[in-house]
Specification:
343 residues; binds zinc ion; binds 5-[(3-aminopropyl)amino]pentane-1-thiol; two-stranded antiparallel ribbon; alpha/beta
């Protein structure tokens, strides 16, 4: 299997406000380095650098003003004499105005964010767009006839929606790739999110559309981040009604129960009969993940990949979360190995 990877991810490692404490972000460079090392150690396949893409490609799923914000935020932050990481500190919640874009950077940071898990640093824009380019290059490989590819994205993207960043995510790499597949001639694409956390960004972007079916298995938002999306009754709207499927699962969920939910989701995808499948591959469902509460074992990730292979679709795996760095390489590559064996 072809892997797409960019060293540019090293340009980004900010802080985060976690559980009330400012600390180095859990979403750290060692994650991608460990996965790359495992890709190489297992001989998964060739590793290629991403191509260059115009930022208009990101604006196929994000608003132009949001993309402009990401591009300029660091300069606007440092222009007023700041040199530390930029973090949002106020958000337009409840009856506060969310219809007028503030002109000052402190207001913009909250206007374009859902939480304080998204620091903007000197290298964030370069890293985020390289990550989106990794996903676009992987999708181009599928469009050129590859049966599958692995977009080793960092930073991740599945919490980023059309106009907001959050949960370590800036550009929604998987959504950008799904849209690119449609722009490349596909009629329908399925986006399956297996990260522990609900893919609120992908859901939001495609919620009113029937040309992308969004499905997510995740920790129940009643007691898992992102808390405010991912319930079972979110089934789409307008033309998208019936094309959004959430599988909230309880803390402690292990393979048998997880596998059943995955089977059901794969049944929905088979019935939808898309031209391609994009998988938001988070492995924070691992039993030892420091910020998540499922109980998958490393061997279960082989089963996960094999089940997805049975769909027999051109498949792009897009790296999302996973924070037990020691095991992230084994767990992520197990999905890909299982996929190759199961196909
Ligand atoms: N106390 C939980 C803090 C969660 N912070 C954001 C998690 C983002 C996961 C992205 S896959
Ligand atoms: Zn996650």
């Amino acid at each position: 299997m072809l892997t797409i990877y960019s060293d540019a991810h090293h340009l980004h490692h900010g802080c985060e406000l976690k559980d009330g404490v400012l600390m180095p972000c859990f979403e750290q460079p060692g994650r991608a380095d460990t996965i790359l090392a495992r890709v190489r150690a297992t001989g998964l396949g060739p590793v290629a650098a991403p191509g260059e893409y115009d930022s208009v490609r990101y604006a196929r799923v994000h608003s132009p003003r949001y993309v402009r914000f990401l591009e300029r935020a660091w300069d606007e932050w440092t222009a007023i004499g700041r040199s530390h990481d930029a973090l949002p500190l106020i958000w337009p919640v409840r009856d506060l105005r969310g219809d007028i874009e503030p002109e000052f950077i402190d207001g913009k940071l909250g206007f374009y964010a859902m939480d304080a898990g998204v620091a903007i640093t000197a290298g964030t824009w370069k890293a985020a767009r390289a990550s989106a380019n990794v996903a676009l290059t992987g999708m181009d490989a599928l469009l050129a006839g590859e049966g599958s590819a692995f977009a080793l994205c960092r930073p991740p993207g599945h919490h980023a929606a059309a106009e907001y960043m959050g949960g370590y995510c800036y550009l929604n790499n998987a959504a950008i790739a799904a849209q690119s597949c449609l722009d490349g001639g596909a009629g329908k694409v399925a986006l399956l999110d297996v990260d522990y956390h609900h893919g609120n960004g992908g859901q939001s972007i495609f919620y009113q559309r029937d040309d992308v079916m969004f499905l997510s298995l995740h920790g129940d938002p009643k007691y898992s981040y992102p808390y405010f999306s991912g319930h079972r009754d979110e089934t789409g709207a307008g033309a998208g009604l019936g094309f959004n499927h959430n599988y909230p699962l309880p803390h402690g969920t292990g393979w048998p129960a997880y596998g059943e939910a995955l089977d059901h989701a794969c049944g929905q995808i088979a019935a939808y009969a898309p031209d391609a499948l994009v998988v938001s591959l988070g492995v924070d469902t691992f039993k030892d993940d420091p910020i998540s509460q499922f109980r998958l074992e490393s061997e279960d990730f082989l089963r996960l990949g094999a089940r997805i292979a049975k769909l027999d679709l051109p498949t792009l795996f897009v790296m999302e979360g996973g924070y037990m760095v020691d095991d992230i390489g084994i767990n992520a590559v197990n999905v890909l190995t299982g996929f190759q064996a199961g196909g």
